[in-house]
Predict the structure.
Amino acid sequence: MAFSIRLTEEERLLAESYAKLHSYSLGEAFKRALFEKIEEEYDIAVGEEAYQEYLSDGKSSRPIGELWKDCDL
């Protein structure tokens, strides 16, 4: 699948510079950036869901210093 996007001259130069720096084609640079963003947002959503589940189960954390004391560290 192919698509096109409109960039300002400044945006185009920045994108080309980034692609060149990483030895990517311009298309590959955009593709990698898109999928990295999708992965980051997915990881954040999964983490937030896990944290809410942790809280709803009535669990809580405590300061690491308390654990060290309990372990005589």
Notes: Residues 11-70 form one domain. The chain has one domain: 11-70. The chain has a mean pLDDT of 94.
